[in-house]
Amino acid sequence: MKRENLVVGVLLFLSILSIVMGVYLILEKSVEGKARLLTRREGVAVVYLYGPLTISRSGSGWTRLLQGADKIVSQLRKISKIPNIKAVVLRINSPGGSIAAVQEIYEEVIRLREKGKKVVVSMGDVGASGAYYVACAADRIVANPGTITGSIGVVMSLGNMEELFRKIGIKIEVIKRGIHKDIGSPARELTSEEKKLLQGLIDDAYDQFLRVVIERRNLEKKEAEKIAQGQIFTGQQAKGLGLVDEIGNFQDAVSLAGKLAGITGEPRVVEMLEPFPRIFDIFSSRSRTDALLDLVDGNSVRLEYILQ
Amino acid sequence: MEDYYTEILYDLAIRPGRGFGRAREHRPWLFLVFIVFLSEISIAVGASLSLTNLARMSKFGFFSNLIFTIVLATFFWIINAGILHFSAEVWGKKGKVIDLFLTLGLAMFPFILFTPLSLIAEGLGKGGIFLYPLFTSLILIWYLFLVVSSIREVYASSTFEAVLILLVPIGVFATLLMFISIAYILLMVISLSL
Question: Which value does ipTM take for this structure?
Answer without folding.
Answer: 0.79
